[in-house]
Design a protein that fits this description.
Distance between the termini: 39 Å
Largest sheet: 9 strands, mixed
Helix content: 25-40%
Shape: globular
Bound molecules: zinc ion
Number of helices: 13
Number of strands: 14
Radius of gyration: 24 Å
Structural class: alpha/beta
Length: 429
């Protein structure tokens, strides 16, 4: 024991990190990591992982949407595992953003496999299926969660026809990879899946700030995205007195400050103007039009909707006072998703058993668990992210935090294996 962390878990944690780094070499770009939906390096990634799990007595296959599916049978009844015996999913995604780090998504898949090693030979009343989702980031098709949507049964015809920059549809990309898009419907999960667990790096500074290695996610924040356009009048900056202007950029600036102020003074709210375009955009011309984005997130949909209504009224007030016009358009309105209260409680307990004080939190970013939660009880555990940095080559994790996460995962599996409530959930999941 070092730092109260189990010795075997430390060794496994070092292996997890080495394996994440090994997978980083399967990239579409030389010298940096980029692995998008069903690119050729994804196939190499699958082959590498399949080699790791074969000695565990686990079977692996690629499903119809390109997810890697590794089944570790319930030891008591290995034959039933293939015939729809109850199973628990543990997973995350294997795709990456361009110029990615090593751990976002990948860590959750590799850690799930480490848990199979950790419980190797132990009898669980359910099978454990480690899942490596083929697509979560939305890079190639501008549509995220292709892998998990297939399992949730929400990958519809319209989505399958979406095209990438080369005009290749999702459907064609699947066929080109040697898979059959007509079989996607068969991948929809049913009663045999007891639940979904996802380990993921936090991708933010909250755990590090709080001095906690592991976080238990209670909900994934809902998200609104809007576009505002302030319309004033362009004119000469030297000849137009200040009191006779209709400056669309000054109006936008006032609005941006108001958004920040409201979010800073509202508990749990994050609101961001991340993009702005001023037209005509010259140093000697008053801006006649500005277009800006607004992203609003909160754990509770009521609070998010109240904030969005406030921001719309605020923009109208600013425009009226400055004798401008404003239009707004809602581009996204995605409800918050709660994690399963039973699994959240179990995860909380397991984090404690791993020697960490649990930290309850909301995920501000979307994850596969958000999609699967519509079908099965789902939970997420976050690992502290040094510097809060992700989607960047300098993304990292502390090997001791990975060891704690493995400890936590083993406790969680043992708890679920001996939980009659979890087994009951099984019957009517
Ligand atoms: Zn991710």
């Amino acid at each position: 024991m070092t730092d109260g962390i189990d010795h075997d878990s430390q060794a496994l944690a070092r292996e997890v990190i080495a394996r994440c780094q090994a997978l980083a070499r399967f990239s579409e770009d030389a010298g940096s990591i980029r692995r998008t939906f069903l690119c050729e390096p994804m196939r190499q990634c699958h082959q590498e992982i399949a080699g790791w799990v074969a000695p565990l007595g686990a079977t692996s296959r690629i499903d119809a949407v390109g997810n890697l599916r590794i089944v570790y049978p319930a030891v008591a009844a290995p034959a039933e595992a293939e015939a729809g015996a109850p199973r628990l999913f543990i997973g995350s995604h294997l795709d990456t953003v361009p110029d990615a780090g090593v751990y976002d998504g990948i860590l959750g898949v590799v850690l799930g496999i480490a848990l199979l090693s950790a419980i190797h030979g132990r009898k669980l009343p359910f099978a454990v299926e480690a899942v490596g989702f083929s697509e979560e980031e939305g890079i190639r098709f501008g549509t995220p969660f292709i892998g998990s949507r297939a399992l949730a049964g929400t990958l519809d015809e319209e989505l399958l026809n979406r095209q990438d920059a080369q005009g290749v549809s999702i459907r064609k990309a699947i066929a080109d990879f040697g898979l059959n898009p007509a079989e996607i419907a068969q991948e929809t999960i049913s009663e045999d899946v007891l639940g979904y667990l996802e380990f993921h790096i936090e991708q933010g500074p909250v755990l590090e700030n709080a001095g906690r290695p592991l976080g238990v996610v209670e909900a994934i924040a809902g998200q609104s995205r809007l576009q505002f356009t302030f319309v004033g009048r362009s004119n000469h900056v030297g000849t137009t007195p200040m009191n006779l202007r209709h400056d669309a950029l000054a109006a936008a600036a006032e609005f941006i400050s108001a958004v920040e102020h409201r979010a800073r003074t509202t508990s749990g709210l994050v609101a961001t103007v991340g993009a702005i375009q001023a037209n005509p955009g010259a140093a000697n011309v008053i801006a006649g039009e500005t277009r800006l984005s607004l992203d609003v997130r909160h754990q509770y949909d009521d609070a998010r909707n109240t904030a969005v209504d406030y921001f719309i009224r605020n923009a109208e007030d600013i425009a009226a006072r400055r004798k401008l016009k404003v239009r707004q358009q809602t581009l996204m309105d995605q409800p918050a998703v709660s994690m399963d209260p039973f699994l959240v409680g179990q995860a909380h307990e397991a984090v404690g058993k791993a020697g960490c004080e649990p930290y309850r939190m909301v995920s501000g970013a979307g994850h596969d668990a958000m999609i699967l939660a519509a079908k099965v009880p789902s939970a997420m555990i976050f690992l502290r992210t040094p510097g809060g940095i992700s989607h960047h080559p300098s993304e990292s994790v502390d090997v001791r935090d990975v060891a704690r996460a493995i400890d936590c995962g083993v406790h969680l599996l043992d708890q679920l294996a001996s939980s009659s409530e979890f087994q009951r959930k099984t019957q009517h999941a």
